[in-house]
Amino acid sequence: MSIVDMPYAAPKIMLFDWHATLVDTHDAMYYAIDDVLPKLHELNVIDRMVKTEDSKTLEDAKLVKYVRENKKLHPKLKAARKVSRTDIFQVLFGDDEAAKKLVHEAFDDAYRNYYGEVYPFEEDVEEMLEDLHQLNLKVGALTNRNREFMMHEVSVINGSGWGHFFHTIVCGDDVEKRKPAPDQILLALEELHEEPSLSCWYIGDSTTDIIAAKEAGVTAIYYNGAGWDKDWLDKIFPGTVNHPHRPDVVVDDFKELMHLVRLEKFAVSE
């Protein structure tokens, strides 16, 4: 596609989105969203939803219209299991940070009833994390969910937990603004005593991840675990004045990501 195939700098730091990138918690996420959307009137945010004519894509406009009229997600969207709650709330409320804060808080209350089970998004995720440590890279995990959920999931994943893989973990309630704001990436870099640069690669599965990375001034890598085709990727990353942010690289799996890491790292060392 029209997005470049190689990063501009070799990595020193690898920051990963947690949900739908490193791990799968889709069931709990969609159950919680099902609980939140009927409460939009109660939360006084129904009238703060994005106008359909202001939506980025026709599909976004359809999502806004359907949720406004039905207070739930379309069954096809839920069945596909491809869209994150952060992207859903971004589509629904755009730049209204106060409205998004309210629905994120309602989501956290609902998610508390469902979270617990967590699985690697790809079977070789743990092997990849071990390889990154062997390459002496700093590794971090970021999530828009609260720390109480994140630390439980990190501690139980694959039985023994993955906490030892991460030099930093930043959660939604650690910052004033969640993604797509760059705050979490910037806080992670601060905790690592590093400055924002292209040698920090941020890998995430959502448009909000890419916006956050570009706003933070780091390399933005889109993890296409959902298997979107070229036309859809060009649609959700149009590169327009209103929606300028596009990933520097798109990878379909972690083997492809590790191939890029090794190419870049050893090209610099030679």
List the helices and strands and how they pair.
Layout: E1 13-17, E2 23-24, H1 26-36, H2 58-70, H3 75-80, H4 85-93, H5 97-111, E3 119-120, H6 125-134, E4 138-142, H7 147-156, E5 168-170, H8 183-191, E6 200-204, H9 207-216, E7 219-223, H10 230-236, E8 249-251, H11 254-269
Parallel strand pairs: 1-4, 1-6, 4-5, 6-7, 7-8
Antiparallel strand pairs: 2-3
Helix pairs in contact: 1-5, 4-5
Overall description:
By secondary structure, this protein is an alpha/beta fold. The chain folds into two domains: 13-24 and 119-269, HAD superfamily/HAD-like (Rossmann fold, 3-Layer(aba) Sandwich); 26-111. 43% of the residues lie in helices and 11% in strands. It contains eleven helices and eight strands. The strands form two sheets. The protein has a six-stranded parallel beta sheet, with helices on both faces. α7 (147-156) links the parallel β4 and β5. α1 packs across α5 (97-111) and α4 runs antiparallel to α5. It starts with 12 loop residues before the first strand and ends with a helix. The relative contact order is 0.19. The model has no long low-confidence stretch (mean pLDDT 93).
